Automatic annotation (TrEMBL):
Residues 681-700, 760-781 are annotated as: Disordered. It comes from the Eukaryota. Residues 685-694 have a biased composition (Low complexity). Residues 23-67, 103-130, 192-324 form a coiled coil. Keywords: Coiled coil. GO terms for cellular component: cytoplasm. GO terms for molecular function: CARD domain binding. InterPro entries: P-loop_NTPase, PDZ_sf. The lineage of its organism: Eukaryota, Metazoa, Chordata, Craniata, Vertebrata. This is Caspase recruitment domain family member 10. Gene3D superfamilies: 2.30.42.10, P-loop containing nucleotide triphosphate hydrolases, SH3 Domains.
């Protein structure tokens, strides 16, 4: 037997002890993982129990809803019965009223009969009186004839004596009558004549008295009859008034009862609606709670699966350690793998710190290695909105840097930490904003949408005191902590107020260079990119924040002390008031649905938003208000994703709308995509000679970007009559002609001939010429079309034009804002527009295709436009009137124009 060397034995004993120690450590870790697994299983059981309780609550809610439905049906039945009873009551009241009217008619007949009886009685009494008066009259008449008879007898006697005397005078041969007798005869004849005249006068007086008496009696009878008739009418009217008063009292009582019933019905309806709304609110709360619990359950399940995977990995490594002779190598590799996994686990538990260290830790090689190829993207969920994770080396490097950096409290706008920018918001922005292959130390923050300073903002006058930091050495010599000088300051303000420094780290390089609280940031110069200058005077707070993350030299920042502008912001911050440093308007080009955030704003496509804060509560999200486009008033408020996050959502929606067959997708896009997604292509960046007063919104520098989630707009109110452009073009000429045929249209409209537009259109006549510089206003040569439009505007008339989309852009570039009206053509009303077509033999399908193409082209306009709905007109003769009213209505409304389009 060969003797084993003592050194080898000692070495084997030492290795066995190491293996035992490692085995104990592995067993301890395994025990800890099992305890953790048991705790997670208990948590899962608790969550399942909670889910069962929620299901019971949901069942109870469903049962209550069924009871509520049955009670609603019963309530409707009772309401119907009550309505039938009310109808029956109204019918009985009507019958009662008919009976009262019949009674009134009978009472009126009785009153008439009574009046007739009274009149007959009065006639009888009058006849009795007349019968009693007749003998008296006869006696009086007898007294008068006695006098007459006496006079008659005396007259006869005188006549007889006169005849005797005449006979004696006429007797022949007699003795002539003496003179005394002749005189006596004359006297008698004279007396007789006088007596005859007196008698005649008496007869006439008697006749006149009799006629007057008869006339007085007739008047008396007439007046008595009229008095009786008036009394009868008075009694009738009195009864009618009493009857109507009774009926009015009855109607008023019925109205009061109906009002009471109505109030009771309204109260019951309000109570039912309140209960229903409360039940809906409770249901929504339960749904949110269930969603939250499901998310927690999914998170716990993911952690549990990770723990099980880690446990299985450790067990597999332990099995390999037992069966393999190369124990040292396997143990070291196992130890490195465990450390990497543990670091990954700690970063997963703290995603905010992970995101905060991502920007500073990533270099050129790390970023290039993280670029995802199309082949690798196939294995990734297309609907995922989260960025790809960094490599393990960058995570460990960031951890080492964080251990070396001192602790500092997080303030508003601080650059030392980004724990407020949790989730995918900052991570997506950092990856999109700083993944540049040309420079690893700085990435230029581009602007996809630019706007000159808003009209409401007053131009800030620069003071004479402008401080420029001295050079502190080249960038290559700086350490990783010194390369991000933005971590030593925090900022306030925005494009409306300017960017101000709120806090400076004591003892830092920027403090030594003269930067302090109240300084206004003006420019950020980058020597590594050919002395390019980023103006910070009119950029948003978000853009300034992300730009200063890569501020590497103190000498590249230009600032000035402006305590007067900083004082209002400081006072508002100390008093706890809300102050808005940013202020600009954007139009959404994609729908933003409501997320789990209760403060998120649900936005539809093509809505106007007023952004007042680009870093709400320190996070990279925008706080804005929905704007009424007609009155420019702010409506409901909330938060929306920033430009980079919204661009990711737009890309996701675009990818989700790409099916396998592109032809069907294009056909569906023409019909429905315009109402859901507004695809706006961004223009390439201009030369470096662009004006410095620009509002930079997009902090991403993605050169492959072709879509814009937000379009920067501004309201324009034009007092003078604006020119009018009608769409589709196929019906515009005839429609303009019919519009001019309306009464008084010649006083309000002026036509610009199509031949003149074709000859003098600047976009077609100069299409081959090189672009003209806009630096000098003398180079703007107005064509005859522009002069004609301006002359029509000076005459207080609307100029009717036949132009396309590019021509509208040219007019807007020359600060002429037309009214664009699109007549929506459907399959139902396309036949009514045949007389407006230039080509009479055109098919309906071709016309519909042309009109839809014209509508799709209108969505690319940099201004708002009006639409004439199909239900607004019924035939082609009515369409010009509707269009005319729409023109006058659009003249009074503000126009929203995209800025940076020219």
């Amino acid at each position: 037997m060969k003797k084993v060397p003592e050194g080898l034995t000692q070495f084997l004993l030492v290795e066995v002890k190491k293996m035992r120690a490692q085995r104990k450590e592995h067993l301890l870790k395994e025990h800890q993982l099992q305890a953790k697994n048991q705790a997670m299983e208990q948590e899962q059981a608790r969550l399942e129990q909670r889910l069962q309780e929620l299901l019971k609550v949901q069942e109870r809610c469903q049962r209550l809803r069924e009871e509520w439905d049955s009670n609603s049906v019963e309530l409707l039945r009772l309401k119907d019965e009550n309505y039938m009873m009310a109808m029956r009551y109204a019918q009985l009241c009507e019958e009662k009223n008919m009976a009262v009217l019949r009674s009134r008619d009978l009472q009126l007949a009785v009153d008439q009969l009574k009046c007739k009886v009274t009149s007959l009685e009065e006639e009888c009494s009058l006849l009795r009186k007349q019968a009693a008066v007749v003998p008296q009259r006869e006696a009086e008449e007898r007294g008068h004839p006695d006098t007459v008879s006496e006079l008659w007898a005396e007259n006869q006697r005188l006549m007889a004596s006169l005849q005797e005397l005449q006979g004696t005078l006429q007797a022949p041969g007699e003795v002539p009558v003496p003179g005394s007798e002749q005189i006596l005869l004359d006297i008698l004849e004279h007396d007789w004549k006088e007596a005859q005249d007196d008698r005649q006068d008496l007869c006439q007086k008697l006749n006149s008295l009799q006629s007057e008496l008869q006339w007085a009696e007739e008047l008396r009878d007439k007046y008595l009859q009229e008095v009786e008739d008036l009394q009868l009418k008075y009694r009738t009217l009195q009864k009618d008034c009493d009857l109507y008063k009774h009926r009015m009292n009855t109607v008023l009582l019925q109205l009061e009862e109906i009002e009471k019933e109505r109030d009771q019905a309204i109260q019951s309806r309000d109570g039912v609606q309140l209960q229903y709304s409360q039940s809906l609110i409770e249901k929504d709360q339960y749904r949110k709670r269930v969603r939250t619990l499901e998310e927690e359950r999914d998170e716990l399940l993911s952690k549990l699966s990770q723990a099980e995977g880690l446990n299985s990995t450790l067990e597999a490594q332990l099995q390999r350690c037992r069966g393999n002779r190369s124990l040292g190598k396997m143990c070291s590799s196992s130890y490195s793998l465990c450390s990497n996994l543990s670091s990954t686990w700690s970063l997963a538990d703290n995603p905010a710190g992970f995101a905060s260290g991502l920007v500073d830790a990533l270099g050129d090689s790390a970023i290039q290695s993280m670029e995802v190829t199309p082949d690798s993207e196939k294995d990734i969920n297309r609907l995922s909105t989260f960025p790809f994770p960094p490599c393990i080396g960058s995570i460990l490097r960031r951890q080492r840097e964080e251990r070396c950096m001192p602790y500092k409290s997080l303030s508003c706008g601080s650059f030392s930490s980004m724990e407020d920018a949790t989730g995918s918001g900052f991570a997506s922005i950092s990856l999109g904003a700083f993944s540049s292959s040309s420079s690893g130390t700085y990435a230029r923050v581009k602007s996809e949408i630019c706007l000159s300073t808003l009209p409401s903002r007053q131009e800030v006058t620069r003071r004479s005191l402008v401080v420029q930091l001295s050079s502190m050495g080249p960038t290559s010599n700086l350490s990783p902590q010194e390369k991000s000088l933005g971590a030593d300051i925090s900022i306030l303000g925005g494009n409306r107020t300017g960017i101000f420094v709120q806090w400076v780290k004591p003892g830092s390089q920027v403090e030594k260079a003269g930067l302090k609280e109240g300084c206004r940031l003006i420019e950020l110069r980058v020597p590594s990119l050919k002395e390019e200058v980023l103006s910070l005077e009119n950029c948003t707070r978000e853009v300034a924040y992300l730009s200063l993350l890569h501020w590497d030299e103190p000498s590249s920042l230009v600032f000035q002390l402006d305590l007067q502008g900083y004082q209002p912001l400081r006072e508002a911050l100390e008093e706890g008031k809300k102050f808005s440093g940013d202020s600009f308007y954007v139009r959404t080009n994609l729908p933003l649905l409501e997320s789990s955030d209760p403060y998120a704003l649900c936005v539809k496509c093509r809505e106007i938003l007023h952004v007042t804060d680009t870093m709400h509560k320190g996070r990279l999200e925008w706080y804005c208000s929905r704007v009424d486009p007609l009155t420019m008033r702010d409506l409901d408020k909330g938060t929306v994703p920033n430009y980079s996050r919204a661009h990711q959502l737009l890309k996701i929606q675009e990818k989700s709308n790409l099916p396998g067959q592109q032809k069907s997708h294009r056909n569906n896009l023409k019909k429905r995509a315009l109402d859901q997604l507004r695809l706006v292509k961004s223009k390439p960046q201009k030369s470096s000679g662009q004006p410095p007063q620009q509002l930079w919104l997009d902090p991403c520098s993605d050169p492959d970007r072709s879509l814009k989630p937000y379009s920067l707009v501004r309201p324009v109110v034009v007092q003078t009559p604006r020119p009018v452009v009608l769409s589709p073009n196929c019906i515009a000429p005839r429609l303009i002609r019919n519009l001019l045929d309306l009464p008084t249209s010649r006083l309000d409209f002026h036509v610009c001939p199509a031949e003149k537009l074709a000859e003098e259109h600047p976009s077609t006549a100069h299409a081959q010429e090189p672009p003209v510089s806009k630096s000098g206003p003398q180079e703007w040569k107005e064509s005859g079309q522009i002069r004609m439009i301006r002359e029509a505007m000076e005459k207080n008339k609307h100029c009717l034009l036949e132009l396309g989309v590019q021509s509208v852009r040219d007019l807007i570039k020359r600060e002429i804002y037309p009214i664009v009206i699109h007549i929506e053509v459907t399959e139902k009303n396309v036949r009514g527009l045949r007389n407006l077509l230039g080509k009479p033999g055109q098919r309906d399908t071709e016309m519909l295709k042309m009109c839809r193409g014209a509508e799709q082209a209108l969505h690319a306009l940099p201004c708002s436009w009006a639409r004439v709905e199909p239900h607004a007109w019924s035939h082609a003769e009515e369409l010009p009137k509707v269009v005319r009213g729409c023109i006058f209505q659009e003249q009074t409304r503000p126009l929203w124009v995209e800025d940076g389009d020219d």
